[in-house]
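Fold it.
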Amino acid sequence: MESPDPPPGWLRVLVRIDFIAAVALTVVAPLALTVSALPSRHRGELGGLLRYWRASSLLMATVYLLADARRIAFPAGIAARLALAGVLWSRPLAPAERAWSRRWRWLAGGYGVLGALASLPLLRGSLMPTLPASCAAYLEPPREYAALLHPTISRRRLGDIGVIGLAVFVIVALAEFVRAGRKGQP
C-alpha cells in the first residue's frame, strides 16, 4: 500500500535528477561506448562493456519493479548500483583503453556507490506496511517511463517482468560466481 501523503517537492526534484543522471550514465554513455568500441581498434573494451551490460540488467529489472511499487525494488536498486560499481572497478585499466572510457568507468562507478549509500534509507520502505512518502517519490519516474514506452502494458505486468528479470539476474550471477570459484578467480 502506498502512502496517502505526497512526497515533498524537493525530494521529487532530486529523484527526477537522479533518474535522468542514471539514464545518462548507465544507459546512454555505455551504449555510446559499446557502439564506438565495435571497430576492431577498440575490441579490447568490449569484454568489460558486456560484463557491464549483464550487471546493468538488474537496474532495468529495478525500474520495472518500481513501476509496480514492488517492495523488492528498493534493495534490488541498491544491489544494482553496487554491482555496476563492482563491475566497472573490478577490471584493471588497460593502457589501450580510451580516456573517456576510463573517465566514464570511474564516474559511473562512483555514482553507483554514492547512489547506493544515499538509497540505504529506502530499505525501511521495503519493510513497512505502508510505503513512506520518501519511497513513493522513487515510483514516479519509472511509472512515467512505463507510460511512455509501454502504454498498453499494465504496471502489474511490468512488475511481473521485473520479478522475472530479477530471478534471471540472480541465477546468472550465482552461475558466474560458481564458475569463477571453480577457476580460482575472485
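The mean pLDDT is 90.
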